[in-house]
Amino acid sequence: MGGFFGVGGGFIVVPMLVLALGFPMKEASGTSLLVMIIASSAGLAARVGTHSNVDWPVVLAFAAASMAGGLLGGPLTKRASASTLTTAFGILLLGVCAVTAYDLLLA
Q: Per-residue DSSP letters for 78-104?
């Protein structure tokens, strides 16, 4: 589904897993992250050995930041309730929507 919606598809995957398929919030978030890891790895592997320029410092910086976020966020999600995670995700989604609308309409 993420590929259907493009780069921002991950924001649609989690609510659809929760609302349409009845996944608990924590499992939906983890499933979405696993799908993004698989898709990103496949895309990167497809470019290796081609004439595409891969900016390895940027790739490695994003990978390191993602791993650090996972290591820090994993223990936090064990202490947070599903309703807190759902609320935080909703606020994040509204923030992304507001920034996108601003960029589209006013920038």
A: HHS-HHHHHHHHHHHHHHHHHHHHHHH
Contact 39, 3 (CB under 8 A): yes
Contact 34, 27 (CB under 8 A): no
Cα separation of 17 and 23, whole Å? 6
Place of tokens 């606020």: 91
Three-state SS at 49: coil
- Give 54's DSSP letter: P
Burial 28-45 (b: 16+ CB within 10 A, else e): bbbebbebeeeeeeeeee
Look at residue 1 and tell me whether its pLDDT is greater than 50: no
Q: How far apart are CA 105 and CA 107, in angstroms?
A: 6
Is residue 4 predicted with pLDDT exceeding 70? no
pLDDT at 49 over 90: no
First CA to last CA across the chain, in angstroms? Answer: 29
